[in-house]
Amino acid sequence: MSESLNPPTTKPSVPHFSSGPCAKRPGWSVSALQNACVGRSHRSEDGKAKLAEVIDRSKKILGVPSDYRLGIVPASDTGAVEMALWSLLGQRPVDILAWESFGQEWVKDVVDELKIADLRLMKAPYGSLPDLSQVDFNHDVVFLWNGTTSGVRVPNGDWIADDRQGLTICDATSAVFAMDIPWHKLDVVTYSWQKVLGGEAQHGIVVLSPRAVERLQSYEPAWPIPKIFRMSQKGKLIEGIFKGDTINTPSMLCVEDAIDGLNWAESVGGLSGLISRSEGNLSAIAKWIEKSDWADFLAEKPEIRSCTSICLKIIDSWFTSLSEEDQAKYTKKLAKLLEKQKVAYDIAPYRAAPPGLRIWGGATVETADIEALLPWLDWAYATVKAEATAS
To answer: End-to-end CA distance of the chain, in Å?
Structure first.
């Protein structure tokens, strides 16, 4: 509990709890990259085979329907989302949902850059979801499956209409490989390797349903499409993207690392094993929260709590009585104290999020390390509070 100033004796074996780039899979070392196709063209037979392997195995592990396309694209998840927004929007009105920082970024794109006038913005504060029952599926719908900076996820896909006329465009980067994604409810899904599989950065994935492909082939936006966002040309899908013929030059080291992550995913039981590991991490924190007198989940309801980006708020009256500036100051001090002890790296909240802590609970994080971390959170909070109230 927070009254104890005696530091725990056991530390996490791996103190990497960053929400991106995230912890590497257990036992990872650079030797995992020794078979990388470096010094070769990514368009060589061997290079394209590696890229195709990532595509095919990702689809298999995730259970992506056979008639959906999965392609490797530039600029991480951000690039994948931008490709979808710039290439697909404009034909129909748009409903866009935002309840945390990255959702707000997509709002800026749609409103300020694409200037789509027929738009409904459905917002909610950190810790909550918008009213999903108000979404109009005659519109194109843009949303996140999991809010990385708020720790809030949609509970399921039941709210998404099967007979929708618009497209559903879902940023699922911190959900894929850790949550059950109902593919038939989604027309575009984006993610990156650097989240749940702990892969290296700068490469994104875009998954398209047949309905999204039809839109790409039948509709041309009013604005010009930069080459880096282009998925169709002259009314035809650029099929090579979905077979390993990437738009720009990928890092073959990162590709090899992605293959290593997929190997590991299969070794722990595939998708069900990955989900179980991540949900186990959330469960460990939930049990600790039940006994905590100073911490709680930022997400208000259990069914919307993320099992990957687990965001906590501080509810102790001493802390809540502080100014917003002082709350931010002591939150940073708390995170720095844990980092100094080499107990937890990078668990301060996102810069635009409320003061608190953010602990990555994705599948590459061992539950034993989460359990070892929790007593240190109590110690660190008690230490910071004692120092502040003594001064």
So the answer is: 22
Distances (CA, A) of 263 to 31, 38, 73, 258, 299: 14, 20, 21, 9, 33
| Pairing label, strands 168-171, 152-153 | unpaired
Which residues, at least 6 apart from 366, have a Cβ–Cβ distance to it below 8 Å? Answer: 13, 14, 26
Which two tokens mark 155? 């509970």
Contact 348, 357 (CB under 8 A): yes
- Using the CB atoms, write b or e for 18-35: b if 16+ within 10 Å: bbbbbbbbbebeeebbee
- pTM for this predicted structure: 0.97
User: Pseudo-torsion of CA 85, 87, 88, 89, nearest 10°?
Assistant: 60
- If residue 95 lies in a helix (H) or strand (E), which one and from where to where? strand 94-98
From CA 141, how far away is CA 169, in angstroms rounded?
6
Per residue in 340-370, pLDDT tens? 999 999 999 998 899 999 999 999 999 999 9
**Token digits of residue 213:** 């492909």
Question: 171: which strand partners?
Answer: 144, 190
| CA angle centred on 63, ends 58 and 68, rounded to 5° | 80
Q: How far apart are CA 201 and CA 331, in angstroms?
A: 27
Condensed to tens digits (0 to 9), the pLDDT of residues 329-348 reads 999 999 999 999 999 999 99
Q: What would the DSSP string read from start to end of 5-28?
A: -SPPS---SS-B--SSSPPPPTT-
The rounded distance, in Å, linking the Cα atoms of 197 and 363 is 7
